[in-house]
Specification:
The chain has 279 residues and is an all-alpha fold. It is built from 12 helices and no strands. Helices cover 76% and strands 0% of the residues.
């Protein structure tokens, strides 16, 4: 018996869904392991301000829904199915994170409730994003790109924000971001800004990566103004948010905050550019 989806021309395939689920589990492990095996993330799971942690978890939900709209566990035809895929990805992130933390004895039956829940909740954010990215990057069908929704300008900016957030989540908790910012001079900061913008633009338009965008008859400055510079601003905003969430800006002045943002904005810019290529 055919489902309603079949009547619309997109039949539901249980096998395809299970395959996508398997890729999601693999993606959760692959993309989240760098964070799950760092001491900073273990400590933050206990010490992170609960309001900031709750806000991060709430923000993650619409991010996952937006990603699922493009690359869910199966081809979807409605936002209801996108929400379903997002919730499945979140559940995978929670289960995968709990499994790894128990495996490495970072969680035990004796672990305090606040530490227990905090560690799993924090690790589940990148793991949930990784679960959805797994379908896109771990052997998706060749014709998936043809079925992906058209990318409007807002969708492009949204995916750049997702890419910046995902990479920044790996970097922002570390002390190295603050250490580098203190070592840098204003000239180093200006050079970092220039290199960030150059790398973003080159990744998408200049070096012919798979998924890159050809300029053809479009002037280079048009793409720079319309996509690259707004993408870099988004990467900086995401960097500020990540640093604030993890308490890296508490008690700091405006100049140290600016320098730390510029430092974290470099990997954020790369993540934003990569998201335009692969999502």
């Amino acid at each position: 018996m055919e489902t309603d989806d079949t009547a619309r021309g997109t039949p539901f395939h249980t096998t395809a869904f299970v395959t996508g689920l398997g890729r999601g589990i693999a993606g959760a492990l692959l993309f989240a392991l760098p964070m799950q095996m760092t001491m900073e993330m273990w400590d933050l799971g206990f010490a992170m301000d609960r309001f900031r942690l709750a806000l991060l978890l709430v923000i993650t939900v619409p991010l996952l829904v937006g990603i699922a709209h493009r690359i869910g566990f199966e081809k979807t035809v409605s936002w209801r199915e996108d929400v379903r895929d997002a919730m499945i990805a979140y559940a995978i992130g929670i289960l995968a994170s709990a499994m790894i933390l128990f495996l490495f004895k970072l969680l035990t039956p004796e672990t305090a409730e606040q530490d227990f829940l905090g560690k799993i909740a924090l690790q589940a954010v990148p793991a949930g994003i990784g679960a959805l990215l797994g379908r896109s990057q771990l052997g998706a069908d060749p014709d998936d790109a043809e079925d992906a929704p058209d990318s409007g300008y807002g969708a492009e900016l949204f995916m750049m924000a997702v890419g910046a957030l995902f990479l920044n989540l790996n970097m922002a908790p570390t002390e190295e971001m603050i250490l580098i910012s203190y070592k840098m001079t204003p000239w180093h900061a200006l050079a970092t800004i220039g290199l960030s913008i150059l790398v973003m633009h080159a990744f998408v338009y200049a070096v012919s990566f798979k998924g890159g965008h050809a300029l053809e008859d479009t002037p280079g400055w048009h793409a720079l103004i319309r996509f690259t510079l707004p993408g870099y601003v988004i990467a900086l905003l995401v960097s500020v948010y990540c640093l604030w969430s993890f308490g890296r800006l508490d008690g700091t002045g405006s100049m140290p905050t600016l320098m730390s943002t510029i430092v974290l904005g470099f990997p954020g810019a790369i993540g934003a550019a990569a998201a335009r290529l692969i999502l």
